[in-house]
Amino acid sequence: MTRRSCAIYAVGIICAALLVVGIGLVVGQVFRNLMHERLKKEIVLVEGSRVFESWKTPPPPVYMEFFFFNVTNVEEFLQGEKPVVNQVGPYTYREYRYKTNVSMVENNTRVSAYTTKSFVFLRDKSVGDPTVDNITTVNIPSWAVMNKLKGSFWKASLVSMWMTSLGSGLFTTRSVDELLWGYEDPLLARVAPTNPEVEKIFGLMYKKNNSNNGEFVYHTGQQNYMDYGRVETWKGESKLSFWTSDQSNTINGSDGSAFHPLLKKDERIYVFSPDLCRSIYMEFEKDVEVKGIPAYRFTPPPSVLASKEENPANEGFCISPKECLGTGLLKVSPCRKGAPVVTSFPHFHLADSKYVSAIEGMSPQREHHQTFLDLNPTTGVIVRASKRAQVNILMERISGFPKTRTLNETVFPVMFLNESVTIDDVSAARLQKLLLISTLVSNFPLIIVGLGAIMLAVFIILLYRAHKHKTTAEEDTSYYPVSDNDKEKEMEKDDPQNGTYIGLTPKVDPQA
Fold it and tell me: Which of 94, 153, 221, 284 could form a disulfide with 265 if both were Cys (CB 3.0 to 4.6 A apart)?
């Protein structure tokens, strides 16, 4: 066997081996599965893991924006006209959040922690000074007290006289700073001595600066990667007690700070929100990209806040049959000390159109008022998010309070917030590096198949050249017949005498 033949055989064997092994690995997804198993073990909430420190102290900056609805026709509204509001904001705060009192429990299968938040005002990202700018809005403390006394005519009449003497009306004008972080309300100050549960200070964010929402116990994800970051208990309880059904009181999903890796488009992700007093779910909407990182966008579908007629599963969120609001609204009185607080998406996005048309100045827009999560599907890391929620007050006639007798039931907007975050450049670079490694490892079999394809091309070229060389050699050694004249001419060249040479013995005379 020639050296050329050996080379051809060697190339053919290598080509076949690479293609067989590569295609086998691709079909079996061996390297992809190995990488996924590695991610499942790396992304766990235990000391020393890749994500533990960033979970305790998230590096990307979080911003909290507050937008208020300033009422411009209070007197006209009290006379029966449609209320007119104009949006004022944002008043932006940098939100710092970190986990405290972190401790591992149940053999590292659970981790307990408190999430502490603090806020610092950012003047350059705001429309004005919150200590100076005034907003005319619903007098929430008055409505809370009136709602508490609903059904008690004599107590209601007494408090009504107090409100008149104190000048506590159905609306109030306060600075943004007071509305957010608290002020002493005269009516609450009058009621507080007779009711220990009542505080004389009111603010939408009162006691929420440098505070936490209570102890959470999370699954670490060691036993099952799908449970990574899932809330096990809140304030020592595995279920809520605010609502009227077990399904509504179930604590589902994470607290919004961590999601399991290897997300799929067809799955529904759950988030438990203490501010909403319930869990909500989100579904895949579209593919997006943030700083070069691929992500799935998950958003709450209309069914989350749909009426019980549209979504029977939401019947448990009705406080009573008479207190069951329409699509797009959730009354959270049970976890707001009985105050008639109603939550929705900003500008009543995804709500029944009657709530939008009832207030002059509402203009729901999906781009500006939608809540969303952009999650990298491989790691589950949040690359961009925006939680948007609106605080409303349910205004209606209340027996014993003459000031309310001209009112029709109205869900009145007070303010909405936008809590947003985008992955920082350093974290994005680290995530891109991890995704690159994951892609290379997962696609390594394709590299083998590619090498096999290259070797196949080389093998074909060698076979072609070998065939061509063999054909040329055969042409050089083949026999061609010639004519008699050509033979004679060749003989004449060899023998000038007769063109041939014949060896003869001398002729002997027999008679000699």
Answer: 284
